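Shipment paperwork, digital attachment
Item: protein structure file
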Amino acid sequence: METTSKTETLKDLGEVGIIGFIQREVSPKLPSYIRKGIGDDCAVLETVGDRVLLVTTDTLIQGIHFTVKTLSPEALGWKALAVNVSDIAAMGGTPRTAFLSMGIRPETQISFMESFVAGFKALARKTNVVLAGGDTVESPSSAVITVTLLGDCKPENVVYRSGAMVGDDLWVTGPLGNAAGGLFLLQNKRVALISRYESLIRAHQKPMPPLEVGKELGERSLAHAMIDISDGIAKDLGHICEQSGVGAVLEGASIPVSHDLMDLAAEAGKNPLEWALHGGEDYELLFTASPADREKILSLTAKLSKIPATRIGTTSEQQGIWLETQKGKEPIRSGGYLHFSG
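Attachment content:
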């Protein structure tokens, strides 16, 4: 057991350090029925049938993940489920059963619950998810929403973060940075701009994870490693690289950025590439694949989502994540939101 100072705080450990501490102390050796525990988008558990069980959980806290300014109750209900559906998609699985736990203030209006449930149900219908239970408790201040989602997949079709190989192509399933642009608009409200950039607002408030694309990539064994983009591609790519033991080179000119995001960045004096690399909450899929499968991937993704996936770089033997632009190649920081950073 590693020792720590009695005065050391969670801020000193940081999010990664806390996860590492829990992993060391609680589950040093996993039982045989757990194929994958901490460290991927979902835990993967053996079942008595011919499919494995995928389990994921996410928490949204008022003041950290959302405010009344950035998410309506209906959008909050949708997004609370969407972030979990995205995890199942990243494993190549099918979502099935959800459990919803809520900590809310007694003074909360009933209309909040009505709108929240409407948003949750709307995405549940689209993804064939059934709400089967949960918990509701009183919160003294901020709202806290936790969703646990169960899904399944054939064992041979599960896509982990650890399967990337040197020389793989890097792909993303859609444009990046839209959610960050939408959040910027909501936090700096200007009615004229918000009405003009509805696609960016929608990307932040009601993301639609590419569930079928993830499932097909797994079933066809096209993706070697995969993760959903929740913390920004620079940070999430780092998880694949760490677990797979590879490095990566991103081609700056190839990273897909929407016209709306480009226009907003120009008006706001922002760098759209920064939003694309570090903004997070896009809930697109980032995956690696063999260069020999490029045409198959383009054809499949265009068929399923009407927008073909975009090749944005390669994995490399050289460790670290690098960005290649007209100025040359330079290392990039992971970015993204850091919990417990203060």
